[in-house]
Amino acid sequence: MKRLFTIGFLLMAISLGTSCIDSKIENTGVKLVTPEEMESILQLEDAQVVDVRTQREYDKSHIANSQNIDYNSPTFEEDISKLDKAKPVILYCRGGSRSAKCAKKLKEAGFEKVYDLDGGISKWKHSDKLKIEVKS
Fold first, then answer.
1. Active-site residue (options: 93, 102, 114, 117)
2. Is pLDDT above 90 for 86?
């Protein structure tokens, strides 16, 4: 009986924890997107695609037609101020951590539509939905 109670409690805690994560994403106004959703956004809207990795990472490979704004650059704040706040912004990095931090800053700066590529370029580099340019 005690074991059944423990398992039930753990399942409830996990479900509450994941629902809180989802609501945090929705409350920030940032939407996680898949490559398919990203492709649709790019077809329907004049979106800005921003790679927030380092210049070195960007030079090795990046999503076609993206621009590089290094999240860790000392000029980061100045660089993002050059983006159009009225146009949607799709962010990505290697795994999703830097782009999530950047997305939060963009929303705080007044950007209307901010999207974050779920899992970053690493998760989707083999997707046929993303056109990735690789340095040869």
1. 93
2. yes
